[in-house]
Amino acid sequence: RRGTFPRTISRCRSPSKARAVNRHSKRNRRPNRGANRALTGPHDHAQISELAERGRRRVGHFFELLETTLADREYLAGDAFSAADIMGFVTVEFAGWLKLALPDDAANAKRWFGAVKARPSSAL
What is the pTM of this model? Predict the structure, then answer.
């Protein structure tokens, strides 16, 4: 099979990288991987569903703020691209990883997001 664990190790040029791949592979095969892993680090911490829901609501409020702020301007801090646009863009992109997207009726925010995404500097 393509991408199987032994082939991954065989592509590692250094023994230390091969050990790291091996360690991560074993960790990711454990049952209940991710359970009680609300925070990174060596200790388990239970996830709090109310906290996650509060975070989703806050993202929704941020999207609303983007929409109203961009109703009368091209960029977040005015008519010129700025660090505020970079931070806002990264926030919207990260929200996408969490399966949260700009609402369909957020025309101003979507226009802004498209303009920022079209900039060469935003390409990965």
Answer: 0.65
